[in-house]
Each structure stands twice: as structure tokens, then as C-alpha cells.
């Protein structure tokens, strides 16, 4: 008996509001389905946050339906609980999983005390329970009594041993019922495994894509993908399966030699056959005018579809070295103009454009076009 554990797929997520990142998320889900079919698994368990929000966009629902139909054609059941992202926030709302269940595409474990039988494996699941109801969660856990140890418990909760910060966890390992042999957890986006007494395993599958910059370190150590659970014996064993995701890097650039730093970055990370990477940039060195900085950084577009300034650690000049007298008896518009030219080091033309943008802030297309011009980017969507 082989089961594939996946979690936190977040279908519909648009990282940094980018079309290609939304598609990346769909592509990773499709890869997971490919793996399940290739490995001839007996079932898939999903431990929450199938969708990024409770009311997912139409495209996310279509992708889910299309991929789940593929699994159904191969007779692979998809057993799922809900996470905090796809749980209803209003009393009258429903889980998006209910729609998929209506079409017999998934097995939604909506009742904690009603398990699903996959061969001789019993699978229980509890959808995400918020902090305000964590005592109720502990009571639910205490009531679970599987018939034998060939059983799995699906959870999507904060675990104290992983996030020991007040308000970040609802349960700890000692709260888990000891009669299960396998505890499959979602919610955390970086893989982790706890080996317990008697061969019991707590396994965190993690998200199959890099959805936040703080996941990069974990990805570099553990990879991203799914976990293959082998229940051939009484004690389960696991195997990590990695998938191809768009790489993301946190890099440091020194503004004192910015052109050379960007050239070296391009040489190191320019990819030919892979998806182009995303960069989270830490700036060091002396502070330089924003317009100059942004124009220099545009060179990164030659080898990356997206980058962002993650941290700005550049040093400003000492205040005693800069003495600018701004007019005090004038209009707000003139004050802004003088600040942009005398302190922010914008040209007079750029300062006037910025003021015009402020005055016409409700004209979105005009503002977008002018901002694009200022930073030297054509008004189109870059894609790799």
C-alpha cells in the first residue's frame, strides 16, 4: 500500500500579483498528479489549503477539476481536509472542497469521527481549527480511537515543537492520540519529520512551491514536492519526491559597484533550459538616488522575470553633510517639488512628472504608463 502525501498547494495564489506565478502553482499541482499516476499510488492524502482562499478564482477551480478527473480515471482517490486558507470565514459560506465532493472528485473528511477506509488503512482527518477553539480541538483529538495502528491522522494545525511562539500553535506532540502510526500535517511550508516511539511518524509535507521568501532556505535543504508513504509493513516508511519549481534566491548587491554586481549575478544565475528565477535583493553600500538605483536594477530583467528589493541596508549620508533649505511659505505642491529635486535628487522633469502622477492618481492607466517610463520599462508583461 503506497500513499502520496501532499499539502498546501494554494491553487489560485498569485505571488506578487504575477500571472506566471499563478501558473507556476498550477504546474506544480499537475506535476504532483503526474507523480501519483507514475508511481501507481493507492491514494493521495492532502492536508489542507488546497486553494489559497475560501472563494477561489474560476481558473483555480477549473485546474482542480481537470487534475482530479485525471486521478479518478486512474482510480486514485483524493482524500482531503481543509486548511486555514480555504476554510470559510463567514458562517454562511461553505468549503470549496464541498463542490469537488459533489462531483465525486474527492473524499472530504468533514467529520472527525468518521474515517475513510483505503484498503486496510483507516484515515481520519480534522480540518483547521482556529486558536479560539484549540481546547475543542484537543477534545476532538482525545476522542479518536482507530481500530489498529495501520491508521493515519490528517491535521492542518500549528505545532508548538515547530513554531513555539504564542498564538502560532494550537497543539503540541503530547496532544496527539498515541494510537495512530502516521500523523500527516499541513500548514507549515517547509518539510519536517518527527520520529516517535514505536515507529510512529509525524510528517510535514510542506508546500510544493516556494510561496514566501522565508521558505527559500528550507527549499535549498529539503527540496519541494510530496512524500511517498509505504505501508507495506506494520511500520510505515517514507520517501521524499522532489518536483521542478521556479527557483528563488535571496542575493546581496552592493550599490558601490552595482553594474558589476548585476553582471556577475547574471552570469551566475542566467538559465537556458529552466524557468528563470526570482530574486529577493538585499542592498548594501551607500545610498543612491532612487531613480538611478531603479534604472540600474532594470538590467536584472535580462535574466529574471521578477525581482524585488527585499531589504535596503544602504547607508544615508550624515545629516551634517546635507543642508537643504526648503521654502516654508509655499504650497504643498511646491514643497513636494523642492523635496524631490533638492533632497531625493530627482531631475526637474522627473519631479514634475511625479507631481502630475499624484494629481492624476485616479487615472490608473496614465499612472502606470508614466511610472513605467520613469524606471525604463516598456508597458508590457515580461514572461519567460
Structural summary, described in words:
The chain is an alpha/beta fold and 384 residues long. The protein contains 10 helices and 15 strands. It has helices at residues 19-38, 58-73, 96-102, 134-143, 216-222, 258-269, 290-297, 332-343, 348-359, 364-374, and strands spanning 2-6, 43-47, 78-81, 107-108, 116-118, 121-126, 151-155, 182-185, 192-195, 201-204, 225-230, 237-242, 248-254, 278-284, 306-312. The strands form 3 sheets. Strands 4-3-2-1-11-12 form a 6-stranded mixed sheet. Helix 3 (96-102) links the parallel strand 3 (78-81) and strand 4 (107-108). The radius of gyration is 26 Å and the shape is elongated. It starts with a strand and ends in a 10-residue tail after the last helix. The model is unreliable at 318-322 and 379-384 (pLDDT under 50).
In which order are the strands of the major sheet placed?
A: 4-3-2-1-11-12
Mean pLDDT reading: 90
Helices, by number, come to 10
The radius of gyration computed from the alpha-carbon positions, rounded to a whole number of angstroms, is: 26 Å
User: Total number of β-strand segments?
Assistant: 15
β-strand amount: 15-25%
N-C termini distance: 40 Å
Helix content: 25-40%
Low-confidence stretches: 318-322, 379-384
Main sheet: strands, sense, barrel: 6 strands, mixed
Net shape = elongated
Amino acid at each position: 500500500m503506497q500513499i502520496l502525501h501532499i499539502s498546501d498547494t494554494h491553487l489560485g495564489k498569485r505571488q506578487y500579483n504575477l500571472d506566471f506565478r499563478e501558473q507556476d502553482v498550477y504546474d506544480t499541482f499537475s506535476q504532483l498528479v503526474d507523480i501519483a499516476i507514475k508511481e501507481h499510488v493507492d491514494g493521495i492524502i492532502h492536508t489542507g489549503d488546497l486553494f489559497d482562499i475560501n472563494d477561489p478564482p474560476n481558473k483555480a477551480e477549473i485546474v482542480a477539476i481537470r487534475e482530479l478527473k485525471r486521478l479518478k480515471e486512474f482510480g486514485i482517490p483524493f482524500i482531503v481536509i481543509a486548511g486555514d486558507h480555504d476554510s470559510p470565514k463567514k458562517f454562511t459560506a461553505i468549503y470549496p472542497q464541498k463542490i469537488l465532493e459533489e462531483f465525486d472528485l474527492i473524499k472530504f473528511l468533514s467529520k472527525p469521527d468518521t474515517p475513510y477506509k483505503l484498503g486496510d488503512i483507516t484515515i481520519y482527518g480534522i480540518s483547521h481549527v482556529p486558536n479560539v477553539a484549540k481546547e475543542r480541538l484537543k477534545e476532538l483529538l482525545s476522542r479518536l480511537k482507530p481500530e489498529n495502528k495501520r491508521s493515519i491522522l490528517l491535521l492542518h494545525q500549528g505545532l508548538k515543537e515547530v513554531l513555539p511562539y504564542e498564538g502560532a500553535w494550537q497543539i503540541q506532540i503530547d496532544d496527539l492520540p498515541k494510537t495512530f502510526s502516521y500523523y500527516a500535517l499541513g500548514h507549515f511550508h517547509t518539510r519536517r519529520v518527527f520520529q516517535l516511539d514505536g515507529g510512529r511518524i509525524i510528517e510535514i509535507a510542506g508546500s510544493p512551491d516556494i510561496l514566501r521568501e522565508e521558505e527559500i532556505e528550507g527549499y535549498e535543504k529539503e527540496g519541494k514536492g510530496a512524500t511517498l508513504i509505504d505501508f507495506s509493513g506494520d511500520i510505515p516508511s517514507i520517501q521524499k519526491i522532489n518536483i521542478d519549481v521556479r527557483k528563488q534566491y535571496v542575493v546581496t548587491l552592493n550599490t558601490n559597484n552595482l553594474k558589476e554586481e548585476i553582471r556577475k549575478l547574471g552570469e551566475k544565475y542566467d538559465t537556458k533550459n529552466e524557468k528563470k528565477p526570482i530574486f529577493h535583493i538585499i542592498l548594501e553600500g551607500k545610498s543612491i538616488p532612487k531613480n538611478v538605483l531603479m534604472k540600474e536594477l532594470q538590467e536584472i530583467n535580462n535574466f529574471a522575470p521578477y525581482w524585488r528589493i527585499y531589504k535596503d541596508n544602504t547607508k544615508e549620508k550624515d545629516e551634517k553633510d546635507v543642508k537643504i533649505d526648503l521654502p516654508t511659505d509655499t504650497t504643498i505642491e511646491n514643497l513636494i517639488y523642492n523635496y524631490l529635486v533638492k533632497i531625493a535628487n530627482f531631475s526637474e522633469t522627473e519631479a514634475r512628472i511625479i507631481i502630475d502622477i499624484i494629481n492624476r492618481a485616479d487615472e490608473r492607466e496614465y499612472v502606470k504608463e508614466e511610472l513605467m517610463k520613469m524606471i525604463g520599462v516598456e508597458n508590457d508583461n515580461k514572461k519567460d
